[in-house]
Amino acid sequence: MIISTIGSHSALQLLYGAKQEKLKTKVYCLEGKEALYRRYPVAGEIITLSSYEDLLNLKPERDEIFIPHGTLITALGEKISEIPFKIFGNREGMIWEMQRKKNIKLLENAGIRTPKTFSPNEIKSLSIVKFPGAKGGAGYFLCSSSDEFEEKLSEILSSKTITEEDAKTTQIQEYITGVTMYPHYFHSLIYDRVEMLGIDRRYETNADALGRLSQNQTAINPSYKVVGNQPLIARESLLPQILDYGDRLITASQKLFPPGLIGPFCIEMAITPEEIVAFEFTSRIVAGTSLYISGSPYSKFLFGDEMSMARRIARELKMAMGQKRLEEFLS
Fold first, then answer.
1. Which of 19, 76, 189, 220 is the most exposed place for a label (fewest CB within 10 A)?
2. In this predicted structure, what is the pLDDT of residue 213?
3. What's the CATH code of the domain at 141?
4. How many other CB atoms are there within 10 angstroms of residue 230's CB atom?
């Protein structure tokens, strides 16, 4: 078996986890990006691409399994359904992740509390404006009125951070004041269970840096582009609800797009003094899992050894192959 992925996002972790499980590895890099994967020798083979759309025309090896991550969604959008690779997980889940209305629909069908959503002319309180795709928060902004929305949207479009097409599919949510958490779940078909292997927080520029300024120095519009991740351990009293949210999401996904989410996923949430509010889900590995190359406390409780999300993926695939069930895990 060969584990392959795009050279970006969480590729170093994915390739290293596959090597830990004694699997072959391959990475697809844009021209000029190969040096990183030579410096960290986790890829058995490096393939260069002139653009990510080249993936649509490649002929993968017979025993090659491709692991998707956020860069694939950003680069190809809904063309992911066309790539000729066997993908670990459910492609339909990535479509539901990308489309903001479907993303919220899945959470709502799972009975998970979500923020209120507004149209531009309904904005009357602090709201956050988001755009489609897995772009790490690029272009997101806060506003409190329709006029402020139009003004800031015009500025973002002028900066070319987003496209006119992105602007047509904005999502406007009530801003939840709480501690953000990003639990790393894994839906195992082998064990028929949802595992929670770690939690991270995202470090966003310049929103997090503004906390270093005094009040009279903060006439700066915050931006939310993710530049790094921090480990986080939740209070044990929060874990039952966090785990319940993961279970609910899987059950709802199985009804809405069978066979539902398979393998890694994440529910992006904010914890307030009163409740846990989920603002979106991701259908594949998230970059924050790379904090736990040697495992997290939660993965230790489950496995007792060094179990990263990447190694967990590789082990699930190995076990599926051993049980002659591999096709159940691929799309």
1. 220
2. 55
3. 3.30.1490
4. 12
In a domain, 8, yes or no: yes
pTM for the whole thing?
0.90
Q: How many residues does the chain have?
A: 331
Q: Tell me what pLDDT residue 135 has.
A: 62
Q: Rounded to the nearest 10 degrees, how much is the dihedral formed by the CA atoms of 153, 154, 157, 161? A: -50
The two three-digit tokens of residue 276, written as one number: 């846990």
Lowest mean pLDDT across 30-44, 80-94, 224-238:
224-238
Token duo for residue 120: 């531009």
> pLDDT tens-digit profile of 135-153?
666 788 889 999 999 999 9
Same domain, 212 and 306: yes
Tokens in use for 331? 């799309």
- Structure tokens belonging to residue 243: 């785990």
Q: Which residues fall within 8 angstroms of residue 100, CB to CB, at 6 or more apart?
A: 130, 132, 169, 171, 280
Work out the pLDDT band at 165, boundaries 50, 70, 90. confident
Backbone φ and ψ for 321, nearest 5 degrees, come out as -65, -40
- Beta carbons within 10 angstroms of residue 256's beta carbon: 16
Query: For 173-182, b where at least 16 C-beta lie within 10 A, e where not — what string?
Result: bbbbeeeebb
The Cα–Cα gap between 265 and 281 comes to: 7
What is the C-alpha to C-alpha distance for residues 7 and 23, in angstroms, rounded to an integer? 17
**What tokens appear for 269 in the block?**
């949430």
Regarding whether 72 and 41 lie in a shared domain, the answer is yes
Where are any strands of DSSP class E within 53-158? Answer: 64-66, 86-87, 117-118, 127-130, 141-143
Percent of the chain with pLDDT over 70: 93
Structural domains of the chain, count: 3
